[in-house]
Design brief:
Strand content: under 5%
Distance between the termini: 11 Å
Shape: globular
Helix content: over 70%
Length: 315
């Protein structure tokens, strides 16, 4: 992947394309006999195992990480693992397209977490967040529809937690390569989702269960996570989150084709509005994120000297 802002934009967009298929595969898996908790446990575990084998065999240098970076990955993975549980529990109650619409509010929460970390977004970024928020409001405006409120709150909780883990990993990625961050974040996620499955579920599908969606979900998790962190490393968490809204468009199109879900006219207007927010990225002054400051709620993750001493300056 190119070591430039344009390479970061490409990585974030391709990651979003992969992530856009995740709700479809997840919904198909749940409808095919897998419980939500088993679905999230299998997709996370298989993706983690594949990456661990790949790194251990071919790229062993990416196994090394300093303690502070490991702590950051562990925190991000724990938060994201909890968010994944909420996401798939919500997906078991909501249509894939509608659920992804709610989840698409996460850039707003990313802006909030970055503000608390003393990294205020630019005016153009806030404008794009506002446009995206209006788009999501239109997308979720379905007159006469019966809304599953528990599912809605679960999905919004998932969006909040997903947004929280992005600034944490952005801090770590300043000193640690993206494959290393991906690996240890996925390991931490697995340490959360598997105990949740064993404690609260333990169900297992019958012989007729559809395993293909699980394998597809694991593959897109593996690919999208690696590209996601490459994007964050090059252009930062806020821009990556906004570009990640492209996954919504992918989900809406595939949910119509594969799941037979339909959108109202106002929702399609919302999708076009969201596209405008995405295209405004070309007006952003994209560059590699500057060195994290020494203040904010994530200041404890700033350890430049130790990171460079162990790894060298990762570009």
């Amino acid at each position: 992947m190119p070591k430039s802002p344009s390479g970061g934009i490409l990585a974030a967009l391709v990651s979003a394309l992969f992530l856009g298929t995740a709700p479809i595969f997840g919904k198909l898996a749940i409808e095919g006999g897998f419980s939500p908790l088993l679905t999230v446990a299998l997709r996370t575990g298989l993706a983690t195992l594949a990456l661990l084998i790949l790194v251990s065999v071919f790229f062993r240098r990416f196994l090394y990480i300093h303690p502070l970076g490991l702590a950051g990955c562990g925190l991000a993975g724990t938060i994201n693992g909890a968010g994944s549980i909420l996401y798939y529990l919500a997906l078991g109650r909501l249509d894939a397209g509608f659920g992804q619409l709610l989840y698409s509010l996460y850039p707003f929460f990313v802006a909030f977490w970055l503000f608390l970390d003393h990294q205020p977004p630019s005016r153009l970024t806030m404008t794009r967040v506002a446009v995206a928020t209006v788009a999501v409001i239109m997308l979720t405006s379905v007159p006469g529809a019966n809304v599953d409120l528990p599912g809605v709150f679960l999905m919004l909780g998932a969006a909040v937690l997903y947004a929280m883990h992005l600034p944490i990993n952005q801090r770590v990625l300043y000193e640690v390569p993206a494959p290393t961050v991906t690996l240890y974040t996925l390991l931490a996620m697995s340490a959360v989702v598997f105990p949740a499955y064993l404690i609260f579920d333990r169900s297992w599908p019958g012989a007729s269960a559809a395993w293909l969606p699980i394998l597809g979900l694991s593959a897109v998790t593996f690919s999208s996570r690696l590209l996601l962190f490459l994007g964050i490393k090059r252009i930062g968490g806020m821009q990556t989150a906004l570009l990640g809204l492209a996954e919504l468009i992918v989900t809406l199109l595939l949910s119509r084709v594969w799941l037979g879900e339909r959108l109202a006219t106002l929702q399609w207007v919302g999708a076009l509005t969201l596209t405008v927010s995405l295209l405004l990225v070309y007006l952003e002054k994209t560059s590699r994120p500057s060195m994290p400051n020494s203040t904010g709620w994530l200041a404890w993750l700033r350890n430049q000297d130790l990171g460079k001493a162990l790894f060298g300056p990762f570009e």
